Amino acid sequence: MLAEPDPEPLLRIYGNGRVHVHYPAYMTRAGNYELQLSQPELRTLLRALATDGIIDFDQAATGHQRQQLAAQQRAASGSLIYISDSSDTVIDIRLNEYQKGPGTARVLNLKKRFTWSDLKQDARRFPQLREITNANNAAQRLETLLHRNDLVKIR
Question: Which of 13, 38, 89, 153 could be stapled to 119 by a disulfide with Cβ–Cβ 3.0 to 4.6 Å?
Fold first, then answer.
């Protein structure tokens, strides 16, 4: 499994609302699936991702805050927390055009990559870090698409 070129589920959402889901060979639901989001569903999803801060996420600043909080927790409790089975959350966003809100500048050809190790655990461990909590909400929102009943197997 270490050399497996197909290590995790993959979710792609296209501008026309088409959603492509790939489950790796080792999973019960292995294969490729699709579903179609309506334009209102797609707009709601994009608006929610923007509201959750995924598009404007500052990884360096949030990572620094996380380190400070972890050090405070370690000093207060005297215990070190280590996650041995780490998982990464990766969200790639590519938009032809993005505008955060009315009166803000439009960004053309936006490319943003959000990566965070152990996002779910950090959201539980540092609930005061709103950026992490919101990023986890965004990841969970996307994850719900992996489990929708209207996914249709395509191969």
Answer: 89
